[in-house]
Design goal:
The chain is an alpha/beta fold. It contains eight helices and twelve strands. A six-stranded mixed sheet has the order 6-7-8-3-9-10, with helices on both faces. Strands 2-1-4-5 form a four-stranded antiparallel sheet, covered by helices on one side. Strands 11-12 form a two-stranded antiparallel ribbon.
Length: about 270
């Protein structure tokens, strides 16, 4: 589904990461992890062909990145909907099918009526798939964060992609919704054979669903199973500072290390150093 060889990317005149070798197969669930500013979202954008590499190569579905759009689903970082937005959740999902088209369909034409039936059927299928049927006809602005996120995932799936990129889909969700959305995504991988590449801050909500992780830190990258990569030895080498990984009694991973340098926080919060 996705192959990167010796890949490197830069931003603002500095190298974010280099030497990335990665393969993602059909039905695999891969998480991209690392601290803020490490280049997690950049890796996804490079894979999509939205940003260039400074070295190496990337192929998506056997072709150069950026040339297989309809077979690729993408959910960018979470956007909030105005509470007063009256557009139905089902119509937001429908935008994934024909939001790129101009003009108004002609339902009186046979082809138009057939296309409309097919579109409604497909939207209904993905709404059912993500478990959103009970609220898909309500205004999107009135829904909870978890409900909105399910509908946005449905929008990304509506054209039957073979690989799905998700940029921090659990951000701003409470713990129950994080677990529910993570389980949903894991089920899509298993049942539909869709490969998923997901950017995340915290591995724990998705730990039980993952096949592999890609951890980016300090311009370097480590890839493998969660318990191969998220170890004291591997993370200490990536961060070039002592890092301890502790497994709690319920199986959660806790990473403990040196605090971030002030310049890291300065890049995140502008001139407010925290």
């Amino acid at each position: 589904m996705l192959v990167m060889r010796g890949a490197a990317a830069a931003a603002g005149g500095r190298t974010l990461w280099s030497g990335v070798d990665l393969e993602v197969g059909a039905g695999e669930f891969v998480a991209v992890l690392g601290p803020n500013g490490a280049g997690k979202s950049t890796l996804v954008k490079v894979a999509l062909g939205l940003l260039p590499l400074t070295a190496g190569s990337v192929e998506l579905l056997g072709r150069p990145a950026g040339s297989s759009s309809r077979r690729v689903g993408y959910l960018p970082q979470r956007r909030s909907f105005d509470p007063g937005l009256a557009v139905r959740g089902r119509d937001v999902v429908r935008l994934g099918l024909d939001g790129h088209r101009w003009g108004v369909p002609f339902p009186l034409l046979l082809a138009g009526r057939r296309r409309e039936r097919e579109a409604r059927t497909r939207v209904g299928e993905v709404v059912d798939l993500v478990g959103a049927s009970a609220y898909a006809d309500r205004p999107i602005g009135s829904l909870s964060g978890g409900e909105q996120q399910r509908l946005l995932i449905a929008q990304a799936l509506v054209e039957r992609p073979e690989i799905l990129f998700l940029d921090e889909p659990l951000d701003s969700l409470d713990l129950p919704n994080q677990a529910a959305v993570a389980s949903l995504i894991g089920g899509i991988c298993r049942d539909s054979g869709v490969a998923v590449v997901m950017v995340a801050h915290d591995v724990n909500p998705i730990l039980g669903q993952l096949d592999r992780v890609v951890y980016i830190a300090g311009g370097r990258v480590a890839a493998g199973s969660p318990h191969e990569v998220i170890t004291s030895e591997t993370l200490s080498a990536l961060f070039s500072t002592p890092i301890e990984v502790v497994t709690t009694s319920d199986g959660r991973l806790v990473v403990v290390g040196e605090p971030e340098a002030p310049e890291v926080h300065g890049g995140r919060h502008g001139h407010e150093h925290r």
